[in-house]
């Protein structure tokens, strides 16, 4: 081996060890900021809370593809260390954007302390404290268990939403152990990161220190939440059994319940919310709200971004969707057309109301979109193909550059992610927290027409949107720094 090769090896090993050391030093600071102060640290829209050392290093490396000025861990580490010394109120801080501003504009006349004091002055001067609010999950299926994972992950003195109870049918021998096992192990999303203790005597699960009461009931009318010390709770209905105001109103009528959020499209006059697009329409007096569907959440933010800049005349949304529990594993009777055929063996052409549902969150697109769906033999992660006619001409490079910037620095950065990978496939996006990820390599644009390919984890990405809606309904609102527009 030549001396030059040895030198290169040493250079890269030393750099890696430095990155590891800095990432390891960040972990306790990130944890304390979040658990004690309710401050969530992001890196160009990607959360660093509960990240591992390798996660932090990888997130820094990935961000260099999308940032006009590469930001490395050596540049963010001193800012994160200084943050721990500030008296911050609950907020979200994008350390990637702050570091970019500091290192791009700093001429050594302003030190880090002064820079952060100026950039975060509102958070430092605020004494805002968030009141603890009770949450109940009604149903414990795919979405219910993922919501449990997310709420437990977020739990702590700095986070006001507390998962107090889960309502399920049943109660047969061994039921509690089965529920715990389904939370602990998931064939798609992997092992739960933490500890689950089953309290058979009190019919409860203790999950990472969170005491969660399991309530057995066949209908909302059977439950009195005040018996468990639960008051003014937000009930999140994951069953989909009731989708209108009359049916969901049964939850609000329960003692101890105050509001209800449906994790499916609502019917009638129920507000269908896509967080990031129309969440401000949730009023303090609203008691029943819908978080729409996974597909509506996946496509609406990107459609809004495109419409804002280019104007959408018309379009068609084709959804390539993983199969769900609604379908049969093998051929059997089903009331829906084609859905009775084996989900694990067939592509199944079916209908979807997601395209039309976009108009409930984005009225300016009413009547402009059609849609259809193909269910495919994969258990999770779906794709929406948006074929759009625009008012203005564009090109692939221009459109991609715009959507990439939107994903990084806009008010939709938590809803739209972007990838330029030439090798990404559906399994790579299991656990993606954004409701939609634009595949830049697949973008087609010519004159005033474009085709966008939008990936989405139809389970986890959607569940993250549901949690955002829960926070909005319960008055949990965090400012983001630097401010986004």
UniProtKB/TrEMBL annotation:
Residues 133-294 form the Glyceraldehyde 3-phosphate dehydrogenase NAD(P) binding domain. It is an enzyme of class 1 (oxidoreductase). Its EC number is 1.2.1.-. CDD domains: GAPDH_I_C, GAPDH_I_N. PROSITE patterns: GAPDH. Belongs to the glyceraldehyde-3-phosphate dehydrogenase family. PANTHER family: GLYCERALDEHYDE 3-PHOSPHATE DEHYDROGENASE NAD(P) BINDING DOMAIN-CONTAINING PROTEIN, GLYCERALDEHYDE-3-PHOSPHATE DEHYDROGENASE. This is Glyceraldehyde-3-phosphate dehydrogenase. The lineage of its organism: Bacteria, Pseudomonadati, Pseudomonadota, Gammaproteobacteria, Vibrionales.
């Amino acid at each position: 081996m030549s001396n030059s090769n040895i030198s290169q090896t040493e250079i890269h090993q030393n750099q890696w060890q430095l990155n590891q050391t800095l990432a390891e030093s960040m972990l306790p600071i990130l944890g304390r900021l979040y658990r004690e102060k309710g401050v969530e640290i992001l890196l160009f829209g990607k959360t660093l809370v509960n990240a591992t050392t390798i996660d932090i290093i990888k997130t820094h490396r990935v961000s260099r593809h999308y940032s006009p000025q590469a930001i490395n861990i050596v540049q963010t580490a001193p800012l994160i260390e200084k943050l721990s010394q500030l008296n911050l109120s609950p907020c979200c801080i994008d350390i990637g954007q702050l570091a970019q501003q500091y290192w791009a504009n700093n001429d050594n006349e302003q030190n880090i302390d002064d820079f952060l004091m100026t950039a975060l002055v509102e958070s430092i001067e605020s004494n805002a404290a968030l009141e603890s609010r009770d949450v109940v999950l009604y149903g414990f299926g795919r979405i219910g268990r993922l919501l449990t994972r997310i709420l437990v992950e977020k739990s702590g003195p700095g986070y006001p939403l507390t998962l107090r109870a889960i309502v399920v049918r049943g109660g047969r021998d061994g039921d509690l152990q089965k529920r715990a096992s389904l939370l602990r192990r998931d064939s798609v999303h992997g092992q739960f990161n933490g500890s689950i203790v089953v309290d058979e005597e009190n019919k409860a699960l203790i999950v990472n220190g969170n005491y969660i009461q399991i309530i057995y009931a066949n209908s909302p009318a059977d439950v009195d939440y005040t018996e468990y010390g639960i008051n003014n709770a937000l009930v999140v209905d994951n069953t989909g059994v009731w989708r209108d105001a009359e049916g969901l109103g049964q939850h609000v009528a329960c003692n101890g319940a105050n509001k209800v959020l449906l994790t499916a499209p609502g019917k009638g006059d129920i507000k269908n919310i896509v967080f990031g697009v129309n969440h401000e329409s949730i009023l303090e007096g609203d008691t029943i709200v819908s978080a729409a569907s996974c597909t509506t959440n996946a496509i609406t933010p990107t459609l809004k971004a495109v419409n804002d800049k280019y104007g959408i005349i018309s379009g068609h949304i084709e959804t390539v969707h993983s199969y769900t529990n609604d379908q049969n594993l093998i051929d059997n009777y089903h009331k829906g057309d084609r859905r009775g055929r084996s989900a694990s063996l067939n592509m199944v052409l079916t209908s979807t109301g997601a395209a039309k549902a976009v108009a409930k969150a984005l009225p300016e697109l009413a009547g402009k979109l059609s849609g259809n769906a193909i269910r495919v033999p994969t258990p999770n992660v779906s794709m929406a193909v948006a074929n759009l006619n625009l008012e203005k001409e564009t090109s692939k490079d221009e459109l991609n550059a715009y959507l990439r910037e939107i994903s990084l620095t806009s008010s939709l950065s938590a809803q739209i992610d972007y990838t330029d990978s030439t090798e990404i496939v559906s399994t790579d996006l299991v656990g993606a927290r954004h409701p939609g990820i634009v595949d830049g390599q697949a973008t087609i644009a010519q004159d005033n027409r474009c085709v966008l390919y939008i990936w989405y984890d139809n389970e986890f990405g959607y569940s993250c949107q549901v949690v955002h809606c829960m926070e909005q309904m319960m008055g949990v609102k965090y400012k983001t720094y630097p401010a986004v527009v």
